[in-house]
Amino acid sequence: MKILENFCKLSLSCVLLSPLMASADVNNERQLDEKAPAAINWQPCFTDENPNLLCAHYAVPLNYQSNRKNSPTIQLALIKLPARNPAKKPLGSLFLNPGGPGGSGVDFVRYVGEYLFSQEVRDQYDLIGVDPRGVGQSQPITCGLSIENALQILPPFEFPVTRTEEKQKIESDKTLSALCAKNGNEIMHQMTTANVARDLDVLRQAVGDELLNYVGYSYGSYLGVTYANLFPQKVGRLVVDGVLDPVAWSTGKNWSGWIVPVTTRLESDKSGMATLNEFFRLCDLSGPGRCLFAGDSAARFDQLAQRLKAKPLPIPLSDGTIFELTYSRLIAEALAAMYSSASWTSFAELLAFVEWQMPPAAIGEKYTVLRKELGIEEIPVPIDNGLFTFPAVMCSDSDNPELPEFWSLWGEESDRQNGYFGRLWTWNSSLCATWPGSKKSRYTGPFNKKTKNPVLVASTEFDPATSYAGAKAVARLLPNSRLVTVAGWGHTTPGLSACADNITAAYLLTGALPKTDTLCQQDFLPFGLPGATAMSDEMVASKRSQAEAISVEREESAKQVRKAIIRSNRQRLN
Question: What is the domain class of 43-142+185-210 according to CATH?
Fold first, then answer.
């Protein structure tokens, strides 16, 4: 069953645009406005958890390119957490996307909506989460995959390391693609990010807002950037955090999409390794009193990885199951730990216990603690939907090589150039080589439209999943944007820095952004290091904002939000 865990977890995360397609996008924006969608019929839901929550289903077109009368519609699942004090100064709705692709906006608002944003923001905005088309409760994609045949089809590793494993992964991908080609429902061909953006614009009108207010994390950043370029005159207050480079995600530069897989183009392998190197640096700086793996930690990690490559370690867990800690599993868990620097102490303890060959039960306990800190006490979803949402979006959005052998080539090269995460990230998109879904409704740029209102772009300097380079690329592309950087570690910025959180809150409340790009300091430093001790020479030399005092309550709220984002955006494919 452990083979399935990357698939059964849900959050609580070189085609040029032709003139004809560009014209269709403009017409689409105008036509949607003219149709004046009906209001949403909200009903109480999950009242035992929160008496204020409201839910609804809302019909949107299945195919926005269809000119047929009475063309099919699909039902989107929505949730709303109403403003706490709308009489104060109602600002309308704030749509949220936790990432993935494949993260549930309904679960995100349901479980952490109360922790999001400042009191002032919560007073004045209705928070709305949407399960994107094909995801969760919104016409979920299905291909007829059961747990029983998944156990036969899916390979027993996180990513392939040997040639034999590569062949096994390629055959698995071909089998899954054939299954979807045979049994997949129609939504499989309509799950591009552009269609999700069009859904957002319908929902914007349905809630009665003139402009879209939106916050998107990780993959949700690409959704936000796509909306901003499809509907630039409908942009209200729009935040993208943990940012994907939209050109790398869609086509790649200079037609590279035909020869370089999308998950290689994003350079998450580089940013992941840069973050892991920071883990090693700060662990050694902290010493064994704060980091149990301190003392030449990078070399010791490599020795440990090679040991597991030669001989995996069986580890019993508290639920009675046993899993093998293999090389690929170690690298996958290392990447997961890099998503949140608050988990680094526990990750270091796990590494030390494995290195010291402590009793397997003790190692299992450390492993369980780490996963709980990362929020991986997952809410299970059906295997048939949880597995296919990721490729249904990514492969439909992006150009990729047609031969699986390119993943082998680039995985090996990425590992050689950029360290441990090259194969992991590269093979994360290998299903795209044979994916049967349609790309017709996608948007491939341009991504440099001037929006009606400015856009806030946010990122950490060391993000292991969405490279800081992606945030800088979007800030360069969008002429009406401002970049806020947290000088710190982890995937997305919420809860890491009061400075950054306050900028986001002020922007959502007033639309005002700093006059220049801003650098903020992370408040909670890894391993409990004090102040600037953890900062590199380059970071110390930079001008920083003064960190604000953080209450215990705020710290706990921040942890809950970050857990939800991490769960939605961990690598979703073996």
Answer: alpha beta
